TrEMBL record:
The keyword Cell inner membrane applies. This is MCE family protein. It is found in: Cell inner membrane. The chain crosses the membrane at residues 12-32. Residues 132-144 have a biased composition (Basic and acidic residues). It comes from Bdellovibrio bacteriovorus. Residues 130-149 are annotated as: Disordered. The lineage of its organism: Bacteria, Pseudomonadati, Bdellovibrionota, Bdellovibrionia, Bdellovibrionales.
Length: 281
């Protein structure tokens, strides 16, 4: 065998080795990117872990994914379900003292239906950020709400001369969808008017503009005329509890600030069904 021919053959195919080298380098780079983008690991214990799945169930805050479940197992005494999760790098506040976690599932009550999105995607774990020292183990809740039902909401004040049919717990709706709740009804200092506090979920705060109109929902609406009469019966919830409807005329004003005060009207504004403003952030 001619040695020069062998050397020439090997050297003429040296570039073949570049492909696996490049593959290794790219894989290493992707691995570094992945690892540097990871946030802290946490453990959340629940009384029940039905439909919580590893690599599928997400952790969410205000509709934004902040992490995902990596493993689900029973505690050593078999009394708890331990959920292991990995947070995203920018979600470190959720691995601090005071952070809260709870499971969101569909919930039907006389006040409405919540968590409908979980019928398709499955349940998810909602969260509230902490504000203390570093912490990685948490006790979660089964209810789709925090200890304080007013957390993650924005409060506004409505003023009316008569709060007939308006009570704490009544729904505040937009286009027929429940977006908040009446939380308090009090007399003004002069006792000349009533103040109605409403709390809207933070994700719906953009719907409340400085010119938004609020009015009482009526269970039965009747328009009687000589040649034409109309009778409209609203939902069972409205018949039993009443509530408040809100909508914004064209053009929409600025997004209202926390605790902004609005008048509460006794009936819907004229031609409000024709309003259709854009309410983007």
């Amino acid at each position: 065998m001619n040695p020069e021919k062998t050397v020439r053959k090997i050297s003429s195919h040296w570039y073949v080795w570049l492909f696996p080298v490049f593959a290794v380098l790219i894989s290493a780079w992707l691995l570094v990117q992945y690892l540097t983008g990871l946030g802290p690991k946490i453990e959340i214990s629940f009384d029940d872990g039905s439909r919580i799945e590893a690599e599928k169930t997400r952790l969410s805050y205000r509709g934004v994914e902040i992490g995902s479940v990596t493993d689900v197992k029973l505690s050593e005494d078999q009394k708890k379900v331990i959920v292991h999760a990995r947070l995203k790098k920018d979600a470190k506040k959720f691995a601090e003292e005071g952070a809260k976690y709870w499971i969101v599932t569909p919930k039907v009550s006389i006040q409405g239906i919540t968590g409908l999105e979980t019928l398709i995607e499955g349940p998810y774990i909602a969260a509230q950020p902490g504000d203390g020292g570093e912490k990685t183990e948490f006790q979660g809740k089964q209810e789709s709400e925090t200890d304080d039902p007013l957390e993650d909401t924005v409060a506004y004040r409505l003023e009316t001369a008569n709060a007939e049919s308006i009570n704490p717990g009544d729904n505040v709706s937009f286009r027929g969808m429940n977006v908040g709740t009446v939380t308090k009804v009090t007399l003004s200092k002069t006792a000349q008017t009533l103040h109605v506090q409403i709390n809207l979920q933070s994700k719906y705060a953009r719907l409340v503009r400085t010119n938004t109109q609020f009015w009482r929902k009526v269970g039965v609406q009747a328009k009687l005329g000589l040649f034409k009469s109309e009778l409209k019966i609203n939902s069972l919830e409205t018949l039993l509890h009443g509530g408040i409807e809100m909508f914004t005329p064209d053009p929409a004003g600025e997004i209202a600030k926390y605790n902004h005060k609005f008048p509460l009207h006794s009936s819907a504004p004229k031609d409000w069904q024709k309003w259709n403003p854009s309410l983007e952030k």
